[in-house]
Amino acid sequence: MEIFDQYEIWWVTGAQLLYGGDAVVKVDSHSKEMVEGLNKSEVLPVKVVYKGTVNSSREVSDIMKAANNDPKCAGVITWMHTFSPAKMWIHGLQQLKKPLLHFHTQYNAEIPWNEIDMDFMNLNQSAHGDREFGHICTRMRIRRKVVVGHWTDKEVLKKIAVWERVAVAWADAQDMLIIRFGDQMNNVAVTDGDKVEAEQRLGYHVDYCPVSELMEYHKKVKEDDIRRLVNEYFRLYEHKHEMEIPASDEYKSVWNAAHAELTLRAILKAKGAKGFTTNFDDLGTDDINDPKFVGFDQIPGLASQRLMAEGYGFGAEGDWKSAALYRSVWVMSEGQACSFLEDYTLNFNGKDSTILQAHMLEVCPLIAEEKPRLEVHFLGIGIRKAQTARLVFTSRPGEGCTATVVDLGNRFRLIVNDVECVKSKPMPNLPVASALWKPMPDFETGAGAWILAGGTHHSCFSYNLSQEYWEDYAEIAGIEMAVIDKTTTIPEFKNTLRWNEVYYMLNKSLC
Questions:
Q1: Which residues of the chain have pLDDT under 70?
Q2: Which pLDDT does position 15 carry in this prediction?
Q3: Residues 38 and 80: beta-carbon distance below 8 Å
Q4: What pTM was estimated for this model as a whole?
Q5: How far is CA 128 from CA 132, 148, 151, 360, 478, in A?
Q6: DSSP for 278-294, written as a single string
Q7: Exposed/middle/buried for 338, CB within 10 Å: 0-12, 13-18, 19+?
Q8: H or E stretch covering 259
């Protein structure tokens, strides 16, 4: 994916000069070969760049400061080829602000039993050096991922690949701007939160943008551009032939939806924003029949669906945390099979009980089982009760993972739930995009644990992400993580939340 080409991962090998210059040359040779092998493996999505061998405290500090200052560097992989005394890593680790992966590996896969001697032992001391490095990281409370295994093992490289995707999503979030068009939906607690703490802890910045400013962009959209976009809709999506008749009411609704999409694209590009939120009670001048009316004649649901598919973060009802999280999900998922979703209604059916995931309109077509259908229907909610264009589809069956971030006042909590999407029955009177899923380990436990954890009614879903991604994300961010999966029981989950509460109360610097 193009965004991965914008970043690189630095590889730093730990050694020392005790064994002489020839040994360091050999260490350097091995390291170059290993990095080259990683890049040729076709497993890692981000290029690894070898940054040399460090043999002193000054060299470690210099490389870590350089990593911090290079915007292309998304993270650092460290490996101790030989015994690298960990005191020389202290000042460098104190300065490092980028994600860290400690790779416990070795140049050779097997011990050369017939040839092994003390020279070999002195040169190949990863079993020794990585423990020394691991100790100082633990003593300094350095957050990192530890990957263990040989550097040619595909399964080992897959773990590094997960971390690389998360590291790029984290780097992407550090200059992420989320624009709120309107405020949060009145009196809703879960979509609100501390924007200052979010920027300090998670990196992204949230700005309010008055809808009146948005409408200035609306006025500048050209009719020829709208016409081209409408034709693109008709080319990409299933639809009724009658919808293409310019004199029809449905064509007018689609035209206005395209006008809204071009407006949002223009302002997001102008401001350099990576995500946005909308509020269905704030869409421009109130009276749509006023000759001077300036505003959206409908909720920009179709625009939100399409912009999500291209990687823009989105949160409904002013939910800026979900908008930022969805952007990161899209990056980690490599732009595939993910969406913003909302718990809408429950289907009690014993062991087959499920939750219908939908929204008024804004579900991303990346999760659609079949080609989406462009439809226009009346939407009777918000300030605009009007005929509204949207993409209608159901998600494909399969296992996935959904996540949300909540603000608990003294910390952020990441809540993750494994789910199974199942085939939905037809809903002829509910023309929206939707997913139907069973939360793991079962409906009662999964839904109950989510509620006990304080989970939102909005979440960010992906077919491609697993718990490992979210573990790496929480580790890099330094936030709490609560996992709901096939092993979860309510008593154990309650105890985990209680222990977490004690931990974060006692370690306020970590929240």
A1: 19-21, 282-294, 382-384, 508-511
A2: 87
A3: no
A4: 0.94
A5: 7, 14, 17, 58, 28
A6: --TT-SBSS-TTSTT--
A7: buried
A8: helix 249-271
